[in-house]
Specification:
This protein has 216 residues and is an alpha+beta fold. It is built from four helices and ten strands, in the order αββββαβββαββαβ. The protein has helices spanning 9-30, 97-108, 152-158, 188-193; strands at residues 59-64, 72-75, 81-84, 87-91, 117-123, 132-136, 142-144, 171-177, 180-186, 208-211. The longest helix has 22 residues, at 9-30.
Length: 216
């Protein structure tokens, strides 16, 4: 006959149940879903209000009048900051070139009397929150740098149109405005294949186009 020591059989069974529950809890924790990503809406609410914002990877030229030794070209780091002579770790991403120039002037006042700074963007695509992203049944899904007065037709030309499996008239446009995510249905099929110009709409920085697959 099997002996259970000074613990009774019921105690051992209870212990195994607790161990099993603990393992199940650990497995459940490993399988928990992550919270949804945060939507960072663009500051542009209408095409006529658009101003380019600097983003990570952008190349900017910094000119300090009468101070060539602190004038130079820099690349915005992945964390959105830049370092220049005399100024370290200054936030650049999310600012217009003019805003960055004023911030540099304030930072340089410690070393230079009444500095005058000009910032020129030599190349870049801006922050992710300002890019237009096209996913699903586009011929070439991708993120696109927004350009002034860009429309749905312009975006579809960049991505090469629709695939043969696309359901273009069920395309969803996702836009964040005033901190709220809004969804609109756009008629890409009518625009591209029927020439319906009324189906063309203005795009804004940060818009997402989701093109579904046809049901048949």
């Amino acid at each position: 006959m099997r002996k259970f020591g000074r613990f009774g059989r019921g105690a051992w069974i209870g212990l195994w149940v607790l161990v099993a529950l603990g393992l199940s809890a650990c497995a459940g924790q490993r399988g928990d879903s992550l919270p949804p990503s945060t939507f960072y809406g663009s500051q542009t609410l209408a095409p006529e209000d658009y101003n380019y914002l600097i983003g990570p990877g952008d190349s900017v030229q910094i000119f300090v009048w009468r101070n060539p030794e602190v004038s130079q070209g820099v690349t915005v780091r992945p964390d959105g900051k830049i370092t220049t002579p005399l100024v370290e770790d200054l936030q650049a991403s999310g600012k217009t070139p003019t805003q960055l120039a004023r911030d540099l002037e304030r930072a340089l006042e410690t070393y230079i009397r009444q500095p005058i700074v000009t910032v020129i963007v030599a190349g870049g695509v801006g922050p992710y929150s300002e890019q237009i992203r096209v996913v699903g049944q586009a011929a070439s899904p991708q993120a696109i740098a927004y350009q002034e007065r860009m429309t749905l037709l312009d975006v579809m030309i960049v991505v090469g149109g629709l695939t043969e499996f696309a359901s273009g008239n069920r395309t969803k446009l996702v836009r964040v405005a005033h901190g709220r995510q809004q969804e609109y249905q756009v008629r890409v099929d009518d625009l591209l294949n029927k020439g319906d110009i009324d189906a063309n709409v203005d795009m804004l920085p940060g818009d997402i186009l989701i093109i579904p697959e046809s049901w048949f």
